[in-house]
């Protein structure tokens, strides 16, 4: 999201909807076992290895997230994601007066079952900068990022760490270009970031510094730390100076391979918004507007490069279509998501994560009911994919804030303690995904011809 600022579900069972609770109790009593697919008629059947799937959750190894085909896996079990964005964690962790807000947001997220957080591992030349100038770092700020990583692990939350911004917030590609100009380079566009060898060397140096960082709090090198879910090459890359997409494509290929050369263990994603480009004119119908196909990104082509493990897509109909909210925003969200899930399955053979989605209180016609309906729409579309073992592998709401941080709000902030219905929707989705993750082998599919008890719980929508 382009911003303009400075800058194990623990929900009590009694708070679950009654029908869902009954289904859950029935399922635990009858089917405390892994489920496998019976190839004879595509039904889910017990494997008769009766065990409590939650028995050893606390003792389970904090292992690296991997992928198997079009699904994420953890210890050979599926790992479907319900997560959130809070981009400013490192900046807040620098100062002791605000560091507690990092703990607070992780604590609140964990309480509703969120398992992945996306945040910035960059701040280039700005207030509380991590990177003061190319390859020159503020150790105090780096130690703040150390705190974010170690605190995330304490609350069993994994991190997607983004390495640079397309926009000028927190420096981004405009700051890299400024550094280049200050050193005497003849640069004419911010898009020179993607093609000039010196600017690319600046970026690579930053990648190397972050990935090889040894956390001062736990002595674990970032590239060895399972707390990190994935590296993101860039937040919302665009190269409008080259609508063909060739310039950005070359940059993605070079940088994905470079990240993997340093850290082959972690997953890598690009950070794209998901716009369809010139290589797939038959997909233009799914773009929110004609401008989307002219910004130098190309969803399918971008994600076919070596080194990219899963696809990233953002969802902002209020920015892309109209700031006057209406039913068409929900219709767009469903078609946009389904198109990318289909492409991830049919062409890319990889998971897709909808890594930003939300609606702003500044939009005309906004109310909390609209936001809740949008969140339900995203979750429902993902569950439709999940029950088939499809590529729709998760979502990250933009964005989760604790109380007392409203001055950072870009209009999209969700404060769970002040949003009971939203909190309940998020918690229920977390519970559904966690049951699915813990009770099935990764080959499991939910395309049942007969209703399994868990099926009702996964799709019952009472909130």
Automatic annotation (TrEMBL):
Compartments, as annotated in UniProt: Secreted
EC number: 3.2.1.78
Pfam families named in the record: GH5_mannosidase
Gene3D superfamilies from the UniProt entry: Glycosidases
Record's catalysed reaction(s): Random hydrolysis of (1->4)-beta-D-mannosidic linkages in mannans, galactomannans and glucomannans
Start and end residues of each Glycoside hydrolase family domain: 64-398
Alphabetized UniProt keyword annotations: Glycosidase, Hydrolase, Secreted
Protein name: mannan endo-1,4-beta-mannosidase
GO molecular function: mannan endo-1,4-beta-mannosidase activity
Annotated source species: Lithospermum erythrorhizon
GO BP, sorted A to Z: polysaccharide catabolic process
Taxon lineage: Eukaryota, Viridiplantae, Streptophyta, Embryophyta, Tracheophyta
SUPFAM superfamilies, sorted: (Trans)glycosidases
GO cellular component, one term: extracellular region
Enzyme class label: hydrolase
Organism superkingdom: Eukaryota
Primary location group: secreted
Family, per entry: Belongs to the glycosyl hydrolase 5 (cellulase A) family.
């Amino acid at each position: 999201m382009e911003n303009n600022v400075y800058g194990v579900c623990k929900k009590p069972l009694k708070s679950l909807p009654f029908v869902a609770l009954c289904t859950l109790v029935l399922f635990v009593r009858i089917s405390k076992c892994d489920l496998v697919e019976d190839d004879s008629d595509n039904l889910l059947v017990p494997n008769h290895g009766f065990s409590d799937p939650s028995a050893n959750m606390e003792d389970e190894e904090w292992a690296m997230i991997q992928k198997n085909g079009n699904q994420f896996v953890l210890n050979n079990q599926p790992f479907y994601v319900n997560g959130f964005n809070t981009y400013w964690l490192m900046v807040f962790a620098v100062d002791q007066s605000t560091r507690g807000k990092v703990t607070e947001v992780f604590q609140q997220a964990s309480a509703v079952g969120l398992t992945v957080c996306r945040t910035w591992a960059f701040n280039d030349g700005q207030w509380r900068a991590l990177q003061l100038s190319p390859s020159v770092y503020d150790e105090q700020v780096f130690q703040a990022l150390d705190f974010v990583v170690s605190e995330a692990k304490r609350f069993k939350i994994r991190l997607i760490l983004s390495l640079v911004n397309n926009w000028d917030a927190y420096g981004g590609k405009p700051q890299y270009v400024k550094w280049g100009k200050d050193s005497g380079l003849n640069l004419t566009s911010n898009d020179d970031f993607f093609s000039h060898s010196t600017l690319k060397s600046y970026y690579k140096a930053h990648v190397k510094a972050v990935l090889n960082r040894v956390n001062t709090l736990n002595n674990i090198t970032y590239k060895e730390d399972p707390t990190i879910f994935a590296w993101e090459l860039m937040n919302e890359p665009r190269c409008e100076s080259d609508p063909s997409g060739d310039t950005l494509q070359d940059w993605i290929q070079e940088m994905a391979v470079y990240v993997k050369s340093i850290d082959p263990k972690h997953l890598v994603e690009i950070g794209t918004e998901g716009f369809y480009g010139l290589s797939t004119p038959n997909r233009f119908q799914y773009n929110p507007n004609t401008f989307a196909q002219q910004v130098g990104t190309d969803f399918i082509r971008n994600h076919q490069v070596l080194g990219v493990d899963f696809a990233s897509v953002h969802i902002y109909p209020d920015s892309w279509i109209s700031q006057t909210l209406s039913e068409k925003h929900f219709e767009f969200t469903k078609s946009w998501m389904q198109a990318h899930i289909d492409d991830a399955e049919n062409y890319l053979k990889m998971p897709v994560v909808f890594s930003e989605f939300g609606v702003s209180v500044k939009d005309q016609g906004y109310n909390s009911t609209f936001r809740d309906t949008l969140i339900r729409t995203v979750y429902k579309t993902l569950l439709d994919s999940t029950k088939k073992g499809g590529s729709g592998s998760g979502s990250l709401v933009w964005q989760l804030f604790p109380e007392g941080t409203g001055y950072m709000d870009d209009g999209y902030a969700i404060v769970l303690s002040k949003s009971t219905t939203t909190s309940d929707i998020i918690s229920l989705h977390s519970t559904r995904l966690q049951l699915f993750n813990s009770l099935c082998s990764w080959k499991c599919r939910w395309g049942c011809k007969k209703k399994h008890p868990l099926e009702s719980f996964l799709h019952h929508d009472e909130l």
